[in-house]
Amino acid sequence: MFKSKNLDISTAEFKEKLDKERGVIIDVRTKEEYDAGHLKLTDDQIDYLNGDFQESVKSLDKNKTYYLYCRSGNRSGKAAQILDKEGFESVFNVGGYEDLVSAGFESNK
Question: What pLDDT is attached to residue 35?
């Protein structure tokens, strides 16, 4: 039976992985949410809900490491599953924006 791998990692694991490999950090919230505040480390913002997420990620390098976050970790979890199914080598859902800020990640607010 096929079992999908767990793409969710904790904020502590995220910090550890960032120390080893910077990767690409993507905020999958809406543009409005992003503009209201995002992690300073964020490399890109690709709205999971805008209807063309799968099309938007086709230009990404499948061999790079990607860390995705949203408001609660739900959208970024779904987005990570999409990237995984599309053949991306290393994709992680790092959870929700507020949790990341609470864990010490710097915000641009």
Answer: 97
- Taking alpha carbons only, the member of 67, 79, 82, 78 closest to residue 26 is 67
The CA-to-CA distance between both ends of the chain, in Å, stands at 45
Q: How confident is the model at residue 45 (pLDDT cuts 50, 70, 90)?
A: very high
Is it the case that residue 53 has pLDDT exceeding 80? yes
- Strands of 90-96's sheet in order across: 44-45, 24-27, 65-70, 90-96
Query: Does 9 have pLDDT greater than 70?
Result: yes
For domain 11-89+98-102, the CATH superfamily is Rhodanese-like domain (3.40.250.10)
Tally of CB atoms within 10 A around 29: 24
Which sequence spans correspond to the domains of the chain? 11-89+98-102
The structure's pTM equals 0.93
Instruction: State the burial class of residue 44 (Cβ atoms within 10 Å of its Cβ: 0-12, 13-18, 19+).
Output: middle
